[in-house]
Amino acid sequence: VQLVESGGGSVQAGGSLSLSCVASGYNPSTYCRGWFRQAPEKEREGVATLDTHGAIEYADSVKGRFTIAKDNVNHTLYLRMDSLKPEDTAMYFCAATEYLDICVVPYVPHFPTRGQGTQVTVS
Question: Per-residue pLDDT averaged across 41-61, rounded?
Answer without folding.
Answer: 96
